[in-house]
Amino acid sequence: MKVSSCCWRLTSLAFTLLFLLISNISFAQEAGDSEIPSDESVISSGETLFNNNCRVCHAVHEQVVGPALNEVYVRRPLPWLQEFIKNSQKVIQGGDEYAVNLYNQFNKTEMPSFDFSNEEVLSILAYVKSETEKGPAVAQTTDAAGGEGVAAQPGSTVDSGFVTAILIALLVVLVLILVVLGILISVVTKYIKQKSELNETDQEIVDQKFSLIKLAKSPGFIWIVTFVFTAIVLKTVIDGLLTVGVQAGYAPTQPIAFSHKLHAGDFEIDCNYCHTGVRISKNANIPSPNICMNCHSGINKVTGATESSKEIQKIYDAIENNEPIRWVRVHNLPDLAYFNHSQHVKVGGIECQTCHGPVETMEVVQQSTSLTMGWCIDCHRKTEINSQGNEYYDKLVELHSETSKDPMVVEDIGGLECAKCHY
Amino acid sequence: MLRNNIISAIVILVIVQIFSSCRAKDDHPGVEYAPNMYHSVPYEGLSQITDESEGKWLSSRIDEKGEYFNTNVNNPHNMNMREPVPGTVKRTEDGYLPYRIPKDSVELAGRILTNPLDSTTEVINQGKELYARFCVHCHGENGQGDGKVGVVFKGVPPYNVGRVKDLSEGYVFHVITMGKGRMGAHGSQVSYEDRWKIVRYVQTLQNQN
């Protein structure tokens, strides 16, 4: 009896140990895995919770602010996760080794506390698990970005393609007409030769052979060639002289190959975001690297690329070495002319593109308008004053409407006075 | 006779070529008329010529450098612009003092800061305009974090759900000014008053359904 009870105790102890061991192993392998629900409804409510609370700092397949969450339920046991999500600081201050390491690894960034129930944490984990099992969707995102790039292009290519198509069609028509005329002539000469009796001069004309040299020596041809040549020469010379002192078309290579098309065009970042001086100062200002870093702290490669961009690396280098980036100035008015951005943009409400052209389509910025005095004057003659809600103009508008029925343009309030810009 | 003609034609073509090269293209800024008027004698803030020999052919400078050389050699990195002295306080029209709450004290800012601007339609509309300039590319038109940059940048929260919905005005102001998490500090880009206007508009987005 004693022996048997002893045996029984031993076996039960062994069983308990075995059970503990097995459960421990399974615990270590799967942690809370088995407890995570896989119902569609739980996953979708977890997705909402994740998007509303976690997405700010976490992604499933990549490290954002916090660590990537794929297989987090394997790495850590469920109770630990629940405790950490609800109050991470408590776990860290409690001295949990893993938590403290994590905290130090992520530059002591505090994860805020979340007032979730255990079920809510489970649903979030259910979503994370379902996403983990789906695998990273890298191809999808690059596709989407590539699609965007392709979608953004046609606007320009269609236009030029259309024009070339028309030109080619016209050329084909002209050649066809020439061919038809040639055939007509040969048919007519043949017909005349066969049928009618001709006098000598007419016979001469009909027998005449087409000769290039004769044509080239004919006074008419020489006159036309001389005329065309002189016209082209004169036009080029005059055009050339007119561009002296006008920098339209200047598109210098910049120290960093910054693309306005990508930033302002594809990503629709407002001009004001970087050119912060434009509403408060004479100059629109070139952004300092800290403004670049608002986004490029997290973005170091072109969408779809696998390697980090060399051009973006130049910003990091400039900041690290505390060196200025020497951008090359594109638009430049001589000192003799005063121009103020804030007056035009803030008060006048002029769009940037009015003077700078379609910058949001330019890979390399180029000066697209002439910036000559005639160009300024022309605009001052045409542009109506933006007097709405601006008390400064009230009296002027009143005075102007007494003498004229036309809307008040810049010219009417002294916009053509020499001393407005030259002083 | 023919040879003379050909020579004169070539001469004319060369002249044409010279005149057509007056035009600005790519790195070539074009031929300048009265270059002394275009190149500034005083130091220019946003354009700088660092090559000492540039414009030497018409130089009248006593230091024998090129006429166009425009670089303040006494500044760090030879920059023309100079940073303000450390600790400089910006004087503003409305007397706002510099913002002193440190970056990591966002909870404190959330508790103690209040918006000096009332929630009027005018302020909210101005805030909306500013939001469109400075925020929309990441946070999206309705504050859903779905702006074109936000999608690529990742980690942009929607305003009207979860924890973000209940953040106080001071908290939002502090985050705009100093940045938080992945968001950078925007205090250098947006003025004090404009930031409070944006806060007013962001609050309407927090309270949307």
Explained architecture:
The complex is a heterodimer of chains A (423) and B (209). Chain A is mainly alpha-helical. Among the domains of chain A are: 26 residues; 107 residues, Cytochrome Bc1 Complex, Chain D, domain 2 (Orthogonal Bundle); 52 residues, no CATH class. Chain A is built from 21 helices and no strands. In chain A, helix 2 packs across helix 7 and helix 15 packs across helix 16. The radius of gyration of chain A is 39 Å and the shape is extended. The N and C termini of chain B lie far apart (89 Å). Chain B has 2 domains: 56 residues, no CATH class; 101 residues, Orthogonal Bundle (Cytochrome Bc1 Complex, Chain D, domain 2). Chain B has 9 helices and no strands. The longest helix of chain B is centred in the first third of the chain and has 19 residues. Helices cover 40% and strands 0% of the residues of chain B. The chains are: A mainly alpha (423), B mainly alpha (209). At the A-B interface, helix 2, helix 12 and helix 15 of A face helix 1, helix 4, helix 5, helix 6 and helix 7 of B.
| Regions with little confidence, pLDDT below 50 for 5+ residues of chain A | 23-31, 139-156
- Helical fraction of chain B equals 25-40%
The percent range for helix content of chain A is: 55-70%
**Average pLDDT number of chain A:** 82
CATH architecture of the domain at 31-137 in chain A: Orthogonal Bundle
What is the SS-derived class of chain B? mainly alpha
How many structural domains can be distinguished in the coordinates of chain B?
2
**Please, what is the CATH homologous superfamily of the domain at 31-137 in chain A?**
Cytochrome c-like domain
Total beta-strand segments of chain B:
0
Note the main sheet of chain A.
none
* Overall body shape of chain A: extended
Count of helical segments of chain A?
Answer: 21
What's the CATH class of the domain at 31-137 in chain A, please?
Answer: Mainly Alpha
Taking the alpha carbons of the first and last residues of chain B, their distance comes to 89 Å
Biggest interface pair, counts: A-B, 65 and 64 residues
